[in-house]
Amino acid sequence: MGRRRLPSLKGLQAFEAFARAGSMVRAAEELSVTHGAVSRQIKALEQQLGAELLTGPRHNLSLTPAGRELAASLSAAFDQISAGLPGAAASEELVISSPGTFAMKWLIPRLAHFVEANPEVQVRILEDSGPPEFGRSGVQAAIRLHRSAAPPGVQATPFLDHAFGPVLSPALFEAAREAPMQILRLPRLHSETFPQGWDQWAGDAGLKLPPPSAERSFEHNSYMLEAVASGLGIAITAWAFAQADIENGRLIAPWGFKPLTSRFTYLRPSLATHPAAERFGTWLVAEGRRANQPPASLF
């Protein structure tokens, strides 16, 4: 059999890393080289192939049709090589970034279902609420609240509706349930990640909020929810964050939950081929369909 005529492996690796990460900088971090080295290797690959793989200004490069075709082939080939390495079949890591409270309150309590069906996959959750940075820290997929069109090069799969409303402890609710507006005078808790929550909810509900007896702010939604459950006041939160605590009687949502236009969405690089990440996305959609709907208002 004749010898294969292949271009530089370093050039192929550099190009595949860029196509998957969408950035010279992130590709360089993944390959432990400078972004200048990635750029030079891709240019050398283009010269070897006699084809333009990237187009556009240096700060906003995109794949040409030839580049997209090559990237898809390379991702599949590298995945196959990775799967054939000694010990690869025993375990496959899937790294997903997610907002912390969503991971804690919704994702992780359901994760056993996915693990049982996919015992060979090691799922690692990283806390992150910012723009997804695929490739950094090994991240292959992300969960974010999303309502606009997916950014270029990203595949977006909405899997769970988003709704929000006030929650408080059963003890505080029982003490004031005969006077709904008195409930809204309780200490008002805020999350720094959603500071406009009370104003937005009141506007959607057509209510004018009375002055609270006190106001308290928390860095994370998870801290705020623990404060609510401990009886420190009333807070606006997402149904996905509060569902388990409401269903087990730890929290009460007197006004139910108002739907929002954003949805929890599974994001992946469009050209990346990762079977476990694809199965995880399918599982998320199924879990979203099975999820219970928010309760109705008690008033």
UniProtKB/TrEMBL annotation:
<keyword id="KW-0804">Transcription</keyword>
<dbReference type="InterPro" id="IPR000847">
    <property type="entry name" value="LysR_HTH_N"/>
</dbReference>
<dbReference type="GO" id="GO:0043565">
    <property type="term" value="F:sequence-specific DNA binding"/>
</dbReference>
<dbReference type="InterPro" id="IPR036390">
    <property type="entry name" value="WH_DNA-bd_sf"/>
</dbReference>
<dbReference type="InterPro" id="IPR005119">
    <property type="entry name" value="LysR_subst-bd"/>
</dbReference>
<dbReference type="GO" id="GO:0006351">
    <property type="term" value="P:DNA-templated transcription"/>
</dbReference>
<dbReference type="InterPro" id="IPR058163">
    <property type="entry name" value="LysR-type_TF_proteobact-type"/>
</dbReference>
<protein>
    <submittedName>
        <fullName>LysR family transcriptional regulator</fullName>
    </submittedName>
</protein>
<feature type="domain" description="HTH lysR-type">
    <location>
        <begin position="7"/>
        <end position="64"/>
    </location>
</feature>
<dbReference type="GO" id="GO:0003700">
    <property type="term" value="F:DNA-binding transcription factor activity"/>
</dbReference>
<keyword id="KW-0238">DNA-binding</keyword>
<comment type="similarity">
    <text>Belongs to the LysR transcriptional regulatory family.</text>
</comment>
<dbReference type="InterPro" id="IPR036388">
    <property type="entry name" value="WH-like_DNA-bd_sf"/>
</dbReference>
<keyword id="KW-0805">Transcription regulation</keyword>
<dbReference type="Pfam" id="PF03466">
    <property type="entry name" value="LysR_substrate"/>
</dbReference>
<dbReference type="Pfam" id="PF00126">
    <property type="entry name" value="HTH_1"/>
</dbReference>
